[in-house]
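User: Reviewer 2 asked us to show a designed sequence for the structure in our supplementary figure. I'm pasting the structure tokens here. Could you produce the per-position amino acids so we can include them in the response letter?
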């Protein structure tokens, strides 16, 4: 048994991760569980991967399923293929700050519970590789450690709350003997080299907000712009880090924060984007609650300005993230998170060249 079971394909992370996983796992196949509405996209993505890397031919198998159902909704013949699975990568989730509670709970929590049930039934399971998020921290005040989880924190939205609940399920299973590693990416943006991304959310909302203004851009200061930090991380670092960490014996049972150890402040983020876009910034102090009320309460204003009300919370957050274990265990691999200043222009160049990319999450 050497195959891997993957959820979240053909999503942003899984699509880039698969070739690395298979290159490192000689002869293994990837069994990708894909919802019916995404099958065409998934098969097209497989064709693209094989075209660029012919050695992947026949090694990426797309099967119809649904992680919220028992046995992941797999048909009987596809379920039989689980006998050859020794490793599970669970990346599927609704990555959307505006997601409703019912959908978030069904996919993020119930879906993870179903994946854990399958893991428990796999006799030859060597490890579950589970992708969480730094934002299980919620409204935690201070530096959130990689081993921390339940600190009595409240949450900014249903995405955070349900990813917290899902990681709690994984932690409970680990305490019961499940071999697993947990990865917590920060706010994942495009590739640091090409800028490529599948959707414009997070800091891209800020870029849209600045672009829609004149030469002088007015930016509301909803928090301390010189103290609040935005935990961005480019996709290529997340992929390379997970790939390297996943095969280390020492990573078994550990949790890794995959984010910039020196994240930019809000002022640095705004000023960097504004400079690239040829804007001069005027900061206007505005209480967060009032800013959210105005943005969320006036019909059409979110669309007009290019930023959702939920996104404002992260410009006033007091949470930062320790990356001690990540940096320690990646020593010697050559994998380091690039500095924001080194790839910021690349992100905006891609955004300008690809206006067809939207901000919707894959559901």
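Assistant: Here is a per-position design you can include in the supplement:
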């Amino acid at each position: 048994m050497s195959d891997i079971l993957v959820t979240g394909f053909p999503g942003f992370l899984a699509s880039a991760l698969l070739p690395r996983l298979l290159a490192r796992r000689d002869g293994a196949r990837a069994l990708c569980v894909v919802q019916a509405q995404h099958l065409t996209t998934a098969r097209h993505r497989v064709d693209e991967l094989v075209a660029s890397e012919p050695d992947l031919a026949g090694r990426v198998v797309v099967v119809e399923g649904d992680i919220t159902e028992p046995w992941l909704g797999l048909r009987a013949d596809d379920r039989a293929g689980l006998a050859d699975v020794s490793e599970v990568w669970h990346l599927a989730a609704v990555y959307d700050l505006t997601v409703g509670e019912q959908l978030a709970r069904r996919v993020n929590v119930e879906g993870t519970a179903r994946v854990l049930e399958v893991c428990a039934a796999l006799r030859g399971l060597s490890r579950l590789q589970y992708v969480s998020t730094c934002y299980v921290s919620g409204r935690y005040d201070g530096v959130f450690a990689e081993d921390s989880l339940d600190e009595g924190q409240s949450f900014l939205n249903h995405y955070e709350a349900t990813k917290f609940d899902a990681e709690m399920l994984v932690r409970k299973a680990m305490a019961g003997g499940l071999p697993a590693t947990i990865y917590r990416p920060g706010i994942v943006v495009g590739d640091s080299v090409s800028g490529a991304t599948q959707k414009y959310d997070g800091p891209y909302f800020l870029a849209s907000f600045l672009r829609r203004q004149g030469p002088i851009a007015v930016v509301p200061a909803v928090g301390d712009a010189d103290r609040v930090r935005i935990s961005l991380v480019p996709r290529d670092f997340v992929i390379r880090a997970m790939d390297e960490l996943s095969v280390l014996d020492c990573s078994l049972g550990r949790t890794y924060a995959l984010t910039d150890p020196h994240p930019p402040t809000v002022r640095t983020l705004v000023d960097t984007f504004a400079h690239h876009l040829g804007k001069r910034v005027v900061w206007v102090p505005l209480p967060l609650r009032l800013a959210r009320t105005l943005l969320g309460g006036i019909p059409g204003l979110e669309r007009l300005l290019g930023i959702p009300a939920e996104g404002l919370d992260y410009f006033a957050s007091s949470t930062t993230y320790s990356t001690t274990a990540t940096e320690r265990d990646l020593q010697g691999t050559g994998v380091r998170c690039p500095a924001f200043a080194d790839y910021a222009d690349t992100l905006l160049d891609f955004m300008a060249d690809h206006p067809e990319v939207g901000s919707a999450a894959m559901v």
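For the response letter, you might also mention the following. The longest strand covers residues 85-90. The chain is about 40% helix and 15% strand.
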